[in-house]
C-alpha cells in the first residue's frame, strides 16, 4: 500500500509553500560558472559584522557544552541597552523564531491573524502552519493601512502583524499614526510590531517600539541581529513584550534555541554601537545613490527607510532578474509579494551598488533579452 504522507499532515501545512530565500552566491557560481558575484538579495549588512564579533567567536571554544539556554549574558546586556527588565525579553534563533513562537502561543484553528498586502512572508507562514485563518488587507501606498487593519479586526482576531519598516516595500509608520491605532485595538488582540530594520530609520516621527510596549501590554516588538548588526548567518533575534507573554513564549521555546557562538557574537555585536552607526551611514549613502540612479534611468521606486530599495521595472521583472543573474548580480524578485513588476535590491557597498546599476542599465538597454557574459 502506498501511503500519501501529505494527507497525514494538517491542512494548513499542506497548503504552505516553502520560504524562498535569496539565491546564495555559491549556487549562482555553480550554475553559471561565474566567479565574481554580487549578492544584493537578502538585506544583509554589506560591511559584515563588527571585528569584535570575530574575536568573540574565535574565543568561544567550549563546543562540547550546551549553550546557556537562558541567554543570561545577552539578556542582561540587552536589558541595559533597551532599558527593559530581563523578564520582558525573549531570545530567538533569528527574529523568525520569535515570530513563530508568537504564532504558536496565540494562534490556532478558529483564530485569525491580520497582515497587510506586501507584508513579510513569515507572518502568513506562521499563521497558516498552526491552522489559523490569515486575513490579508489591501496596502495603502504600498504600506500598512492602519484604518483598514482596525476595520478588519473581529471576534476571532488574535494577532495583527505589522512591520515597521516593512519588507519588501521599505514603507514606515509614524508614531502619530501608530499610537491612535494602538489606542483603538482591543486589548486582547496581540499586535506584533516587527522592527527588523529599525536601526536604519532616520526619519523624524519614527516610533521607538520598545517605548511603546510600556504603554500597550498587548504590543510585542521583535528585533534582530541579522541586519544592522551583520549577524544574519548566526541567527539571533529577540522580542520585547509584557512579561506574561514572554513567559508563555519561554514555555514552548526549544531549550537551546540559540547556539553558543551566536550568543557570543550577539553580545560582541551589541557592544560595538560604532559599527552599527557606520553601517547605518554606509546604508544612507548607498540608498540615496540607488534612488538617484533610478531617477536617472527613469525607473520608479518605493521610497524606503530600510537597507533595501524596491524598484519598479515597469514590466514583468522576472526576465530582468534572470538577466541580472547572468551578469553576476543577485537581487530579489518579489512576484510572491504581489509585486511582479518590482525587484528588491539590498543596499551594498559603493562598488556593489555601482555594479548593480551598470548591470541594470545593460539589461534594460538589451531589452532584458539573454545577456552576454558577465559584465
Ligand atoms: C521584516 C522582517 N522581519 C524579520 C526578518 C527575519 O530576520 P531574522 O530571522 O534573520 O532575524 C526579516 C528578514 O529578512 C524581515 O525582513
Detailed description of the structure:
By secondary structure, the protein is of the alpha/beta class. The protein is 39% helix and 16% strand. It has helices spanning 11-14, 25-32, 51-59, 72-82, 95-106, 122-129, 146-152, 175-184, 209-215, 243-252, 260-270, 273-297, 318-326, 350-365; strands at residues 38-39, 89-92, 112-116, 133-137, 157-163, 190-194, 219-224, 237-240, 300-302, 308-312, 329-330, 332-334, 339-346. The strands form three sheets. It has a seven-stranded mixed beta sheet with strand order 2-8-7-6-5-3-4, with helices on both faces. A hairpin with a 5-residue loop joins strand 9 and strand 10 (308-312). The longest helix has 25 residues, at 273-297. The protein is globular, with a radius of gyration of 21 Å. Pyridoxal-5'-phosphate (PLP) is lined by residues 43, 94-96, 120, 163, 167, 194, 196, 224, 226, 232, 237.
SSE layout and pairing:
Layout: H1 11-14, H2 25-32, E1 38-39, H3 51-59, H4 72-82, E2 89-92, H5 95-106, E3 112-116, H6 122-129, E4 133-137, H7 146-152, E5 157-163, H8 175-184, E6 190-194, H9 209-215, E7 219-224, E8 237-240, H10 243-252, H11 260-270, H12 273-297, E9 300-302, E10 308-312, H13 318-326, E11 329-330, E12 332-334, E13 339-346, H14 350-365
Parallel strand pairs: 1-11, 3-4, 3-5, 5-6, 6-7
Antiparallel strand pairs: 2-8, 7-8, 9-10, 10-13, 12-13
Helix pairs in contact: 3-11, 4-11, 5-6, 12-14
Bound molecules: pyridoxal-5'-phosphate.
